[in-house]
Write a structure and sequence with these properties.
By secondary structure, the protein is of the alpha+beta class. The protein has three domains: 172 residues, Uridine Diphospho-n-acetylenolpyruvylglucosamine Reductase, domain 3 (2-Layer Sandwich); 102 residues, no CATH class; 109 residues, 2-Layer Sandwich (Alpha-Beta Plaits). Helix content is 31%, strand content 22%. It contains 17 helices and 16 strands. Helix 13 runs antiparallel to helix 14. The protein is globular, with a radius of gyration of 22 Å. The two termini are 29 Å apart.
């Protein structure tokens, strides 16, 4: 473990962190030799079911906070199980945020680094792991290893999903932000024109002569697509221009009765507080809260504001899975069996129109989320071309396919198409690759070699077993 500077060693936050790491180590020691090691963690943002186990897990209960924020260096020392909600609560009072803040409040920093994360700043700031300056990793050997960019463990860690260990502490970069965000929703009736606009914004960092700080979009149908262009602004009395109309009004409130994704179709400009912008998608889980009636005005009026958030919907989804509610209703109504299609994929920007055409024809699920990104450098376990623009396409729902749903035909077809187009698929949800294909796509041999060094007794589940075999 890294040596804590003398000026920090006596601080309560660093002492508490050291105690939490000690409890983690003690919980590791309590697991019988030869038994697999995994987290004792009740919550998740993953969408793949893992095999049930009663084995004891690693105690990470004390690793959920921010150790310190340094406004002068624009860095933060953060524990691995700290949620982005808590992280933003600690940094925003200093006028700072992480370089990339994933969409959902309860995603943890360690989870976003080991499992990848993305958001509207990714076209200029890359992915969350690319703003990590240093981290401590608790390995399968029960050791805390401090690692930095360029180190073998550090570089293999992104997209390893805990197969190489768990981050206990991360030092990350922060960026300054003002209090408000001005939005402009630009409609396109053609995916090719939208793609061209993305490429121009990524290359120049501007749109209509104004800087672009955040960029994402939604495709509602083949001829109704939107890019949401975000610009950091000081307040309602800030500059005018292309997004100026938004600055004349009070900030919108999409944690109330209004639903954010619908606003893209209803207004050309908008103004949000920085805080509300960061969590604009969390309130309604993008658009997925509609499955629980939360977008129905009559129900929404009585749905407590504090419970309009993604982790609540995740718990409701868990109840649905446990009691087979949706499938029972489908059977009663005579509807075909559903296949769950919950995925995020990346394709090179120029391939976006082709993927959307194929997706409309073969899957038929809308809306879908669009989020451009540019990786800063190569990463072995998720080999995007550094410096080249990609677009993340996110789609989350079910498709009625009939008895063959158990074989996941739509998900398998998506995997084939994405990699035919030179893209990659995130591994937070179900995956169906054979071992040879998986290793070729996700640096399997390299990750296995790093795992053998830091987990010589093979206590941690391998990446393939975690993400495909769901162990």
């Amino acid at each position: 473990m890294r040596d804590v500077p003398t000026t920090q060693a006596g601080s309560p936050a660093w002492q508490q962190h050291a105690q939490a790491v000690a409890r983690l180590a003690a919980s590791y020691a309590a697991i019988p030799p030869g038994q697999p090691v995994r987290l004792a963690k009740k919550t998740t943002n993953l969408f793949r079911v893992r095999a049930a186990t009663t084995a004891p897990g690693l105690d990470v209960s004390g690793l959920t906070g921010v150790i310190e924020v340094d406004p002068d260096t624009r860095t933060a020392e953060v524990q691995g199980m700290c949620t982005y909600e808590d992280l933003v609560d600690a940094t925003l009072p200093h006028g700072l945020i992480p370089l990339v803040v994933p969409q959902l409040r309860t995603i943890t920093l360690g989870g976003a680094v080991t499992g990848l994360g993305i958001e509207s700043t990714s076209f200029r700031n890359g992915l969350p792991h690319e703003s990590v300056l240093e981290m401590d990793v608790f390995t399968g050997a029960g050791e805390v290893v401090t690692t930095r960019p360029g180190d073998e463990l550090f570089d293999a860690f992104p997209n390893s999903y805990g197969s190489l260990g768990y981050a206990t502490r991360l030092r990350i970069e922060l960026e300054p932000v003002p209090a408000y965000v001005a939005l402009r929703h630009v409609r396109f009736d053609d995916a090719a024109l939208l793609t061209k606009t993305i490429e121009e914004i990524v290359a120049s960092g501007e749109h209509d002569g104004e800087p672009v700080d955040g960029l994402d979009g939604v495709a509602f149908s083949p001829d109704e697509l939107y890019l949401t262009i975000a610009r950091w602004v000081s307040g309602p009395a800030g500059p005018t221009g292309a997004a100026g109309a938004a600055l004349d009004a009070d900030p919108s409130d999409y944690a109330g009765q209004q639903v954010f994704f619908r606003s893209l179709q209803e207004r050309e400009t908008d103004l949000l507080t920085m805080y509300d912008y960061l969590w604009r998608w969390d309130t309604d889980w993008f658009w997925c809260s509609g499955a629980f009636g939360a977008q129905n005005p009559r129900i929404r009026r009585f749905w407590p504001r504090a419970l309009r958030r993604s982790d609540v919907y995740m718990k409701l989804l868990g109840l649905d899975r446990r009691f087979d509610i949706a499938d029972r209703l489908d059977r009663r109504a005579g509807r075909p069996q559903r296949e769950r299609v919950v995925q995020d994929i990346e394709v090179p920007t120029e391939q976006l129109p082709e993927f959307l055409r194929w997706f409309d024809d073969e899957i038929g699920m809308r809306p879908v989320w669009l989020c451009p990104l540019v990786a800063r450098r190569p990463w072995p376990a998720y080999p995007l071309e550094a410096g080249e623009p990609y677009v993340n396409v996110g789609f989350w729902g079910t498709v009625h396919v009939g008895p063959e749903a158990v074989d996941a035909p739509r998900n398998r077809a998506i995997e084939t198409k994405v990699h035919e187009l030179g893209g990659h698929k995130s591994l937070y949800s179900e995956a169906f690759y054979d071992r040879e294909t998986f290793d070729s796509l996700y640096g399997g041999d390299h990750v296995a070699a790093v795992k053998a060094r830091y987990d010589p007794d093979d206590r941690l589940t391998s990446l393939y077993d975690k993400t495909v075999r769901r162990k």
